[in-house]
Here is the input.
Amino acid sequence: MSRTAPTAALNEGESDSRKTSQNDRIYEEMLAAILEQRLAPGTKLSEDTLGEIFGVSRTVIRTVLQRLAHEQIVRIQPNRGAFVSEPTPEEAREVLQARRLIEEGIVRKAVRNQTLADIKNLKKSVASERLSLETGDHEAWVRLSGDFHLKLAEIAGNQTLTAFLRELVSRTSLIIVQYQKGTLSPCSCDEHTEIIEAIAAGDEDRAIELMNAHLQACEDQLNLQGSDAKADLYSIFAKPAKLEEKSGSVI
Amino acid sequence: MSRTAPTAALNEGESDSRKTSQNDRIYEEMLAAILEQRLAPGTKLSEDTLGEIFGVSRTVIRTVLQRLAHEQIVRIQPNRGAFVSEPTPEEAREVLQARRLIEEGIVRKAVRNQTLADIKNLKKSVASERLSLETGDHEAWVRLSGDFHLKLAEIAGNQTLTAFLRELVSRTSLIIVQYQKGTLSPCSCDEHTEIIEAIAAGDEDRAIELMNAHLQACEDQLNLQGSDAKADLYSIFAKPAKLEEKSGSVI
DNA sequence: TTTATTATTTTTGTATACAATATTTTTCTA
DNA sequence: TAGAAAAATATTGTATACAAAAATAATAAA
Here is the structure.
């Protein structure tokens, strides 16, 4: 079976040869499974099991896991295996901060580079987003919501920044899964729409301001008290926190 | 069982086990070889050969090559192998643009987070840099010159941004190798020193301005006409450019 | 001689085998 | 029964074997 319709253009200079796309196929499937919450943070990703599921040897699974690990979606512990990442509150703040910085630059460039077709495309994207929200298709919404930001990056036209943002968007999904307070964002579609309008109007300052507010709103909807659940347990019982695998940076 | 004593601070949650560090060792050596110009852009990186050199099987070499490829230091062509990256002029511009954006944010944070020890540390770093320049130790200079920017990132205190910048710094080295016009930067040490002084003085705007100027100066020293050598050949002979492996993105 | 075609060799992609390490279960002792 | 030590099991890390593809060499035709 030929691979699922080449959804979108392939990022990098990969030819669409059969072998390589097998790698990509498994990568895409695993990434989707994690971002759509079918694989919860902390889940062990056994090489043997995944190999059986996808009908390949551990060799190719390993490659995929390493790729996901490099994007911080998966965490590899030497001799212990791979696990779905459990971003700490600190990491969450870092990712959102990095996004504010990078997306400010992206918006600035997008305002300059935009064409009418781009604006149309963005509007269509937000329309799909709104639809998925109305029909309650959570999985589609997660994907589309991120796609908006990536589309903006493509308009800006710096592939290096786009690649960074792609990683940040994925990590943001994982962060939202782990730290969303109550309900989902009331309707980020409206915020996206406002951003589009500011860009279309060529109002750079306003577009940047809106994007910053949008990302800040996203962060504000998270439940990021100083420490994560495990550390809280220790603080609650007033014992010195043991050094555990779950703890954040070693330093 | 408690794990091996956490020797020193390792970046990520990697234990210091022998096996993993073998991987890291080879990675570091190969990265250094590329950045220090002992491996020129375009060089084929044969798995068998590298395996023999480092006394390991292709398996571990493959892992390292994939890691380098993800950092854009190496380019993997399916069924053809790995090559030292040959960044295009467009990529070069993108990388420098991304750096201006990210390092602006880093400088802003560094101004706020700085301690006296940090400033001392930075000054020491620049002193080493100057020394390497005076003694003509080019390899050391390449490394130290990048270290300055990474130290700044660490002061800023966002590990996610630091990781991005680390990749960008490596890529910049590769870009300089390929596109430096005449002599090396007259003395970027002075520019580094000025940046430190602005940061120490808490003058955010000036520090940002100096950093931007510094990175722009770096870009201006490159020979980045619209197209690379190969494309030039075609334009010179006024023939339609054939699509070659060397061309940039496929899309 | 030059070009096209075929055969050979080399190299990468993937599966499997074995070794090293972690995890679990069992057994033993207090 | 609870806890510790030891054996058994399972999982990862690495090397090797084999298949598929590309690069090279050799041969044949013009």
